[in-house]
Amino acid sequence: MGLYRTVLAEGQHDDLAAFLNPHLLTGQWPVLRTLISRPIRDAWEAAFPELTTRAATAA
Questions:
Q1: 16-52 pLDDT, tens digit each
Q2: Distance between CA atoms of 18 and 46, rounded to whole angstroms?
Q3: Which among 3, 9, 40, 44 is least surrounded, fewest beta carbons within 10 Å?
Q4: How many domains are there within the chain?
Q5: pLDDT at res. 52
Q6: Structural domain span for residue 7
């Protein structure tokens, strides 16, 4: 979780491709979204609407 949090908040494009697994990211998003700041969370959810759906399903 710590690595994902750091990459989501500070990672460059190459870091995203190298360190993030899409299936793990969507599966862990309900927890990860509580660990990152609101602006970062909002940006990721705006770019990837499936994350919002996943978070709503888990709530």
A1: 999 999 999 999 999 999 999 999 999 999 999 989 8
A2: 22
A3: 3
A4: 1
A5: 87
A6: 2-58
Q: Kindly list the distances between the CA atom of residue 7 and the CA atoms of 38, 41, 56, 58, in Å, as whole numbers in the listed order.
A: 15, 12, 23, 23
Q: Amino acid identity, residue 50?
A: E
Give dist(CA 18, CA 31) in Å, integer: 21
In the block, residue with structure tokens 């299936």: 23
CA distance 13 to 30: 23
**Residue predicted with more confidence, 46 or 54:** 46
Q: pTM value?
A: 0.79
What is the full DSSP assignment across the chain?
-HHHHHHHHH--HHHHHHH--HHHHHHHHHHHHHHS-HHHHHHHHHH-HHHHHHHHHH-
